[in-house]
Write a structure and sequence with these properties.
This protein has 269 residues and is mainly alpha-helical. It contains seven helices and no strands. It has one domain.
Length: 269
């Protein structure tokens, strides 16, 4: 089974068969099956047991839409409050980060945790976007539209098979992601010692780097879709949709931040 770049999806089950999926082969697939024997330890995300409904594409879409909706509403309210609530961005990020660690390490499908994460990250992004919106009117909404556009575009790419998620593709993307992280850390350390690498300065190099990061985040969505597809085919219980929604939200948050950053570069005088 291929490994997703998203830590929330790295332990999803594999398997054949399935139910309604993201898949490109044969459209909607019926006859949900149990989890693969390799995952027979039956932790919280074991096979759909007696009386449990197996996961479907509708479950994933609905739970992801709810999570994204919570984040958008929380972000919009925070952004509309203006600079007065900008200070809340950092505490909200910390709360969101802590919750994300809990969800990932416990593999929790608790909707309260997932929605709290979405709300916290929405507030954090809203605080940042609200400040930037004061300098660049409309930038928050533009970044939102851009993020939605990338999400829909990559979903179309996945469903049509224009880019196939193969082991080679996964290795390439993981290498690109590691490279991006290394450069970010190097730039941060350089700034601490007065050596600016120019990756976040707003100049031409920063614009190019931001485009690369957006590309890596966008292609990461393909791995997320593929791993969600495998969970559906493996017959995971319906409640697992919340965990998948959380995984998708982590990628979307990253994507929104980087698109917001790029737009701020492009609109500088």
């Amino acid at each position: 089974m291929r490994t997703s770049s998203n830590p929330a999806f790295r332990n999803l089950p594999g398997g054949q068969g399935g139910y309604a999926t993201f898949g490109r082969q044969g459209g909607m697939m019926g006859g949900a099956t149990a989890y693969a024997d390799a995952h027979a330890s039956q932790v919280e995300y074991g096979r759909a047991g007696t009386g449990e409904r197996p996961l479907t594409i509708d479950d994933v879409v609905t739970k992801t839409a709810i999570s994204a909706g919570v984040a958008i509403v929380a972000g919009a309210l925070t952004a509309l409050a203006g600079p007065a609530l900008a200070w809340i961005a950092l505490p909200a990020f910390i709360v969101g980060f802590v919750i994300s660690l809990i969800v990932i390490f416990k593999q929790s499908s608790n909707p309260a945790l997932v929605l709290t994460y979405s709300a916290a990250m929405g507030v954090a992004l809203g605080g940042i976007a609200g400040v930037l919106n004061g300098y660049f009117p409309g930038i928050a909404f533009q970044a939102l539209i851009g993020t939605a556009g990338v999400f829909v575009g990559m979903l179309v790419v996945y469903k049509t098979g224009a880019v196939r998620v193969t082991p080679r593709f996964t290795k390439w993307l993981m290498g690109a992601m590691i490279g991006v992280v290394v450069l970010m850390v190097a730039n941060l350390i350089g700034n601490l010692f007065g050596a600016d690498l120019g990756l976040r300065s707003g100049g031409p190099l920063a614009i190019i780097f931001s485009l690369v990061v957006i590309g890596v985040a966008a292609f990461s969505l393909l791995l997320d879709f593929d791993m969600a597809d495998k969970a559906i085919r493996a017959g995971a219980p319906a409640k697992f949709a919340w965990y998948i929604a959380f995984g998708l939200m982590t990628t979307l948050v990253w994507l929104y931040i980087e698109i917001l950053r790029l737009l701020s570069y492009l609109r500088q005088d």
